[in-house]
């Protein structure tokens, strides 16, 4: 028979142990997802799980204590990360297989395909269930736009490098804090921040079909880059300018430049270019002693459609360009 108990009556971490495969399967189904559990050597289980649940993820510390295989149909509504802490496992999904050992490789399962995991008798894992709404919601917050389809992750996750080590540390820290009686995570705000940190780590560390977009988010430009871009625009204002030219000068991606301009300048880079060119037209109309035609000044600064130019000018300065030219002539005649 199984034994369910908590380390502390007030603790969030629950503990369950059993040698009955049916009880182990039932408990794991209730905590994680429906699955089939097979014993490969016919020996009794020595199953134990310690787990914590929140609205955004489930963290479990799991062992089977026997040569076992877990078969899981498509999960549909969640992602799953397995981090081997002891022993070895062999995981497969979508025609790919990964062998895991402590400190080497973890596995990240997507929601759309069945999976299988074989556990050695001494294997112990962190098993992290992340609802789609949690992970995709975190990604949407990072990208600043909705995410309307499941993410596709690489099955294997490198834990040996510094990024993988940071992910492990983040998961371990969250588990420690969630299990701490009377700790800071009793504050919903603190808990949400720690959970968001782990979710962001997952998104940045585990290769996926959104990785390039996330790297660009990671390149969100600081004010120094914006200043370089602004200076570059002013220095080349009379030349053909395009977004990629400005991004290259500022050493950031086009998408990161767009985001940085929206945050710091309040408009896109090309809208800023148009605004600065309108300023130059305005200055020339006020100061031009040669009496150049308005359309000639406009064309010199890249405005070739006079009607559109006149409307943009009026929106910028509150008057038509002809009124500015008249004011300039009046000033010069004094």
What does this entry look like structurally?
- This protein is an alpha+beta fold and 334 residues long.
- The chain folds into three domains: 3-216, Jelly Rolls (Sandwich), CATH 2.60.120; 219-266; 268-334.
- Helices cover 45% and strands 21% of the residues.
- It contains twelve helices and 13 strands.
- The protein has helices at 21-31, 132-143, 162-179, 188-205, 211-218, 223-235, 243-250, 254-264, 269-287, 294-300, 306-317, 321-333, and strands spanning 3-6, 14-18, 36-39, 47-53, 58-63, 68-72, 78-86, 89-93, 96-100, 105-109, 115-119, 124-131, 156-158.
- The strands form two sheets. An eight-stranded antiparallel sheet has the order 1-2-4-5-12-7-10-13, sandwiched between helices. It has a five-stranded antiparallel sheet with strand order 3-6-11-8-9, with helices on one face.
- A hairpin with a 4-residue loop joins strand 4 (47-53) and strand 5.
- Helix 2 (132-143) packs across helix 4 (188-205) and helix 7 (243-250) crosses helix 8 (254-264).
- The longest helix has 19 residues, at 269-287.
- The protein is elongated and about 105 Å long.
- The N and C termini lie far apart (103 Å).
- The relative contact order is 0.08.
- Mean pLDDT is 87; it is low at 5-11.
- Residues 227-327 form the HTH araC/xylS-type domain.
- This is AraC family transcriptional regulator.
- GO terms for molecular function: DNA-binding transcription factor activity; sequence-specific DNA binding.
- InterPro entries: AraC-bd_2 (IPR035418), AraC_XylS_family_regulators (IPR050204), Homeodomain-like_sf (IPR009057), HTH_AraC (IPR018060), HTH_AraC-typ_CS (IPR018062).
- Keywords: DNA-binding, Transcription, Transcription regulation.
């Amino acid at each position: 028979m199984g034994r369910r108990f908590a380390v502390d009556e007030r603790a969030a971490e629950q503990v369950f142990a059993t040698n009955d495969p049916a009880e182990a399967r039932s408990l794991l189904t209730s905590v994680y997802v429906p699955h089939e559990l097979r014993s490969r050597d016919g020996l009794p289980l020595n199953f134990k799980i310690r787990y914590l649940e929140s609205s955004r993820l489930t963290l479990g510390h799991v062992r089977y204590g026997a040569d076992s295989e877990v078969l899981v149909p498509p999960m549909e509504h969640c992602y799953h990360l397995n981090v081997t802490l002891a022993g070895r496992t062999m995981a497969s999904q979508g025609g790919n297989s990964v062998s895991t050992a402590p400190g080497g490789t973890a596995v990240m399962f997507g929601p759309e395909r069945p999976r299988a995991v074989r556990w050695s008798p001494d294997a112990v894992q962190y098993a992290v269930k992340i609802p789609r709404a949690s992970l995709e919601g975190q990604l949407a917050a990072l990208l600043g736009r909705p995410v309307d389809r499941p993410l596709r992750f690489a099955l294997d996750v490198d834990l040996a490098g510094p990024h993988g080590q940071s992910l492990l540390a983040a998961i371990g820290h969250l588990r420690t804090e969630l299990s701490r009686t009377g700790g800071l995570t009793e504050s919903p705000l603190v808990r949400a921040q720690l959970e968001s940190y782990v979710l962001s780590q997952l998104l940045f560390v585990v290769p996926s079909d959104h990785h390039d977009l996330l790297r660009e988010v990671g390149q969100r430009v600081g004010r120094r880059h914006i200043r370089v871009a602004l200076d570059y625009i002013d220095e080349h204002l009379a030349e053909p300018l395009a977004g990629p030219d400005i991004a290259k000068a500022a050493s950031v991606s086009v998408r990161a430049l767009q985001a940085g301009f929206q945050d710091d300048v309040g408009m896109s880079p090309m809208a800023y270019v148009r605004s600065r060119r309108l300023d130059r037209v305005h200055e020339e109309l006020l100061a031009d002693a040669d009496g150049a035609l308005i359309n000639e000044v406009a064309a010199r600064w890249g405005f070739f459609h006079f009607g559109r130019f006149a409307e943009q000018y009026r929106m910028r300065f509150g008057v038509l360009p002809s009124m500015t030219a008249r004011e300039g002539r009046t000033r010069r005649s004094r």
